């Protein structure tokens, strides 16, 4: 296995044993990126110089015998919706094409404090709106398992980069499945933490009450390591929980004996690809073989999740994206003759179709006369969905579901039909509405394409997620598969 | 004809709170400063930033709520008010909508001796916007405009009254009383000229005796009590005239032009915004327990009405004098501190309301800037009581004190203003005056008692006002009786 194909914790061991230096490792990644990026197109911006400088700093520290944090010196990358000081942060939008933030997101600060080596910023659906990364205003990222297929979205660049070994790990953001769905499509591990566990400060908001930053990694151990670095209370984020962060490494024990597992029947309904269903059912049996207690259960309000999500998320987005008006930063239409036309033309030209569609849906849903019928109703549904999960977690430690209803689809297959695209998030959006944590792990292949298993736990139950995911991973080898990009 | 109508007036008052830092970030709230120097990514609403509520803002809002007899909400939240304007960095304002921090209060006003209670509908917290600076006279005639975001995120409370006022005088009295109460709580410096207290008025007229409200018009941009009163008067007249002429009042927002003395249309209801309020997802709801409210109650100072009551009942001031003295916290403080050194309340009140306010107003100064301290005033009054100077001289000395900052004693000494109380000296002058004014003496003898006033004046003139007036009167009477 090539150096860059290894997991972060394996690379960590090599660094500590001084078998490689961070600089060598970073150069190896940069070289690999140069080779495969033409196929994958995961990066919006690469920051080779800064990465090499950070790697050298780490090497010097290590040489001096200084204590280094786990993950220090290991090349990684960020979805391009996390604010990075002096480094272009675009949200893959024309409106922010040349925006250079003056401050770092809290996750960036936390990783920097541990010796982050950042290779660059990753492609995404514009403002994180989409399920395929086809909505990037710049270019499409390809699925490394099949370049004719989408990597998923909106963290498609982040998932593809890990799958194609263009970064040891990445951070994505998940509003309705934007980490888990591309993780499933690209055969990597993706975690949407509990809402409030990871600070959102510096995350360019899509829908504030749903957004959460999380890791995309090659295996569960890496996922736990990354979460450990970025989790915790942030005084700059009022919605971040003021709770101690557990030691997630301690949860990595391959033991699920007696673990009570609920399988919500609503996730195995019509529309689920039979091949995916078969693979997920096999995975559930795998848990049973490992000693977990499996029971069918019900989350009765699941069918209302998607409509509620497609009211709440656009409503918040219509407000969050109002600031992009050409007055202070970003793209501005310079032909307009007055301020109102400047606002309108800037936004018309600066935003892509999907973003505009959601802004209009959200504006409509919040407008007087429709608020009660749409937004307020959606909030009520959200409460019912939360109650579904409360009831389920009174009985079960985890819930198991497919992450997606099918493997990665082909480019263009759904992009002409927004509703069919929205339906591809059906297994994941409920989790964001409920605010609970969920992880997607590789659980098999359908015609050579990865399939993801979604494990859900109660709020702040990340340790349980890791324990279950780790036990499954130890008993299988799907996570060790690497896509063949035809380049070596 | 106009007497058949009655006005219905409600006020919306924005008060800038006196916190050191802004409502959602750590930037300073200091007034002025180079444009865009009191800003950070948070108050500029840069992509990705989040607000963090300044607890002091909530403390102040609770305090204002208690001072205005409101119920403090145990559960409150922030909402987003969405609208586009270049001075609004996020194109939404974080404000409060359906669950404001305080509701159901009141304050009492007095106009022409008649007391009236005005309801306070609600008080809510919100952030201020920035300021546009146009290259031309108005936004329309400008070729370019610049934005200063220094004020962005400065904490405000908006105090909304019930439509309980019926005249411009009542509106003015309400605003004056509101300002006094807020000043007493010290949650704002209430500087109208710096915009830290701003007032909008909702005005409608209806035929007297009817229940139904007329069409309401909102007036903006009134930045003084006088402007408020004039604007309301003008608008009531305008609406009555429209009704009389068979026209129709349209629901709109109008702006007060202080130089022209008219209201002008800004935008009509048809153009009005749909603010699309919804709960601010970046802030958690605000839970205010009894302990929090109680801890604020403990810091509550004596308010104008209580203070007025104390001055009337304990010190014996007239209701009118007590109202004037307590209408400004600084004036009331000045009064109390003078009383520590000099105990005749009526005399102190007269001096403050008369001489001191007259001189301050003439110079455009506030009571805080008074060159005369309470103690210095007391010393002057004591000199007068001791007979060292006459009342007339005292006013002269006071003015001198005001202009130079010197003590009364120094001025009296330096200018030789000590009252003449020597019976012999005054007697001599009295005799001289009697001798020089035989006509007046004659008049007096003939029963024209007021002639004595002229003779007293002549004695005072001779002594440059230094003669003890009581003594002058006594001696004049004695000598005239003996003639
Ligand atoms: Zn600031």
Describe this protein with a few key phrases.
heterodimer, A: 488 residues, alpha/beta, eleven-stranded mixed β-sheet, 11 strands, 38% helix, B: 483 residues, alpha+beta, 39% helix, elongated, binds zinc ion
Q: In terms of topology, how is this protein built?
A:
The complex is a heterodimer of chains A (488) and B (483).
Chain A: H1 8-16, H2 22-40, E1 43-46, H3 48-63, E2 75-79, H4 106-113, E3 117-122, H5 156-163, E4 169-174, H6 180-186, E5 189-192, E6 212-217, H7 220-230, E7 260-264, H8 274-289, E8 293-297, H9 305-320, H10 339-350, H11 353-366, H12 372-395, E9 398-402, H13 418-423, H14 429-434, E10 438-446, E11 449-456, H15 462-475
Parallel strand pairs in A: 2-3, 2-4, 7-8, 7-9
Antiparallel strand pairs in A: 1-3, 4-6, 5-6, 5-10, 9-11, 10-11
Helix pairs in contact in A: 2-3, 5-6, 7-15, 9-11, 9-12
Chain B: E1 5-16, H1 55-67, E2 71-72, E3 75-76, E4 79-82, E5 92-95, E6 102-111, E7 114-127, E8 131-134, E9 145-148, E10 155-161, H2 168-185, E11 197-207, E12 217-222, H3 225-244, E13 252-257, E14 262-268, E15 278-279, E16 286-287, H4 290-297, H5 304-315, H6 319-326, H7 329-339, H8 345-363, H9 374-385, H10 391-404, H11 408-414, H12 423-436, H13 438-445, H14 451-462, H15 469-482
The complex binds zinc ion.
């Amino acid at each position: 296995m090539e150096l860059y194909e290894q997991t972060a914790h394996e690379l960590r061991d090599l660094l500590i044993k001084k078998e490689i230096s961070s600089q060598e490792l970073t150069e190896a990644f940069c070289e690999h990126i140069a080779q495969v990026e033409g196929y994958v197109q995961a990066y919006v911006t690469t920051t080779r110089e800064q990465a090499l400088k950070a790697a050298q700093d780490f090497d010097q520290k290590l040489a001096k015998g200084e204590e280094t944090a786990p993950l220090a010196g290991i090349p990684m990358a960020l979805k391009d919706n996390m604010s990075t000081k002096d480094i272009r942060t675009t949200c893959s939008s024309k409106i922010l094409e040349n925006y250079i933030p003056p401050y770092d997101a809290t996750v960036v600060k936390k990783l920097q404090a541990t010796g982050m080596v950042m290779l660059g910023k990753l492609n995404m659906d514009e403002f994180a709106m989409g399920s395929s990364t086809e909505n990037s205003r710049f270019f499409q990222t390809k699925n490394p398992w099949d370049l004719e297929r989408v990597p998923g979205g909106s963290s498609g660049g982040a998932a593809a980069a890990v799958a194609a070994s263009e970064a040891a790990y990445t951070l994505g953001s998940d509003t309705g499945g934007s980490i888990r769905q591309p993780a499933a499509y690209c055969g990597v591990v993706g975690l949407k933490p509990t809402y409030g566990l990871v600070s959102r400060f510096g995350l360019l908001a899509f829908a504030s009450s749903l957004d959460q930053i999380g890791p995309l990694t090659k295996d569960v151990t890496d996922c736990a390591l990354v979460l450990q670095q970025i989790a915790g209370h942030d005084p700059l984020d009022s919605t971040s929980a003021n709770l101690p962060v557990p030691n997630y490494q301690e949860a990595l024990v391959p033991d699920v004996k007696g673990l009570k597992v609920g399988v919500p029947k609503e996730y195995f309904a019509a529309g689920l690809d039979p091949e995916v269903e078969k693979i997920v059912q096999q995975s559930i049996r795998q848990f049973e073989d490992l000693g977990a207690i499996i029971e069918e259960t019900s989350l009765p309000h699941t069918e209302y999740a998607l409509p509620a999500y497609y009211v709440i998320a656009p409503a918040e987005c219509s407000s969050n994206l109002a600031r992009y008006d050409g007055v202070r930063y970003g793209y501005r239409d310079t032909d307009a003759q007055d301020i109102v036309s400047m606002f309108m033309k800037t936004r018309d030209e600066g935003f892509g179709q999907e973003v505009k569609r959601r802004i209009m849906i959200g504006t409509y849903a919040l407008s007087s006369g429709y608020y009660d019928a749409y937004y307020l109703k959606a909030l009520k549904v959200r409460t019912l969905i939360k109650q579904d999960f409360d009831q389920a977690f009174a009985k079960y430690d985890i819930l198991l579901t497919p992450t997606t209803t099918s493997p990665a689809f082909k480019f263009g297959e759904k992009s002409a039909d927004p509703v069919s695209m929205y339906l591809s998030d059906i297994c994941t959006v409920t989790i964001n509405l409920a605010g609970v944590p969920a992880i997607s792990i590789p659980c098999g292949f359908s015609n050579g394409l990865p399939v993801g298993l979604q494990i859900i736990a109660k709020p702040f139950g990340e340790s349980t997620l890791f324990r279950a995911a780790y036990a499954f991973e130890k008993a299988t080898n799907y996570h060790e598969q690497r896509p063949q990009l035809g380049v070596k | 004809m106009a007497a058949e109508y009655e006005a219905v007036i409600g006020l919306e008052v924005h008060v800038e709170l006196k916190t050191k830092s802004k409502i959602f970030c750590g930037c300073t709230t200091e007034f002025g400063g180079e444009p865009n120097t009191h800003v950070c990514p948070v108050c500029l609403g840069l992509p990705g930033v989040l607000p963090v509520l300044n607890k002091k803002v909530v403390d102040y809002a609770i305090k204002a709520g208690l001072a205005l007899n409101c119920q403090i909400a145990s559960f409150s939240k922030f909402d987003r008010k969405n609208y586009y304007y270049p001075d609004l960095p996020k194109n939404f304002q974080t404000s409060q909508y359906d669950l404001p921090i305080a509701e159901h209060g009141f304050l009492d006003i007095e106009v022409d001796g008649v007391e009236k209670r005005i309801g306070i509908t609600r008080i809510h917290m919100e952030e201020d916007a920035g300021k546009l600076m146009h290259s031309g006279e108005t936004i329309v005639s400008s070729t370019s405009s610049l934005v200063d975001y220094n004020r962005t995120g400065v904490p405000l409370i908006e105090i909304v009254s019930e439509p309980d006022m019926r005249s411009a005088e009542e509106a003015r009295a309400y605003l004056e009383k509101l300002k006094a109460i807020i000043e007493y709580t010290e949650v704002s410096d209430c500087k109208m000229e710096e915009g830290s207290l701003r007032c909008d008025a909702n005005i409608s007229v209806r035929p007297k005796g009817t229940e139904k409200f007329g069409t309401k018009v909102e007036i903006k941009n009134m930045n003084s009590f006088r402007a408020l009163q004039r604007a309301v008067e003008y608008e009531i007249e305008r609406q009555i005239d429209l009704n009389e002429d068979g026209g129709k009042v349209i629901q709109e927002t109008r702006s007060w032009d202080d130089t022209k003395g008219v209201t002008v249309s800004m935008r009509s209801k048809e153009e009005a915004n749909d603010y699309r309020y919804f709960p601010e997802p970046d802030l958690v709801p605000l839970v205010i327990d009894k302990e929090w409210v109680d801890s604020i109650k403990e810091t509550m100072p004596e308010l104008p009405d209580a203070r007025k009551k104390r001055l009337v009942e304990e010190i014996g001031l007239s209701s009118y004098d007590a109202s004037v003295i307590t209408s400004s916290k600084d004036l009331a403080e000045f009064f109390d501190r003078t009383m520590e050194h000099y105990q005749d309340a009526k005399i102190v009140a007269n001096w403050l309301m008369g001489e001191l306010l007259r001189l301050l107003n003439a110079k455009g100064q506030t009571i805080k800037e008074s060159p005369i301290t309470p103690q210095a005033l007391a010393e002057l009054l004591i000199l007068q009581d001791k007979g060292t100077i006459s009342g007339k001289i005292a006013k002269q000395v006071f003015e001198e004190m005001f202009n130079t900052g010197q003590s009364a004693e120094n001025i009296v000494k330096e200018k030789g203003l000590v009252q003449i109380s020597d019976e012999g000296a005054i007697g001599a002058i009295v005799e001289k005056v009697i001798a020089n004014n035989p006509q007046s003496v004659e008049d007096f003898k003939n029963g024209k008692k007021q002639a004595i006033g002229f003779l007293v004046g002549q004695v005072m003139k001779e002594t440059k006002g230094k003669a003890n007036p009581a003594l002058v009167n006594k001696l004049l009477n004695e000598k005239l009786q003996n003639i």
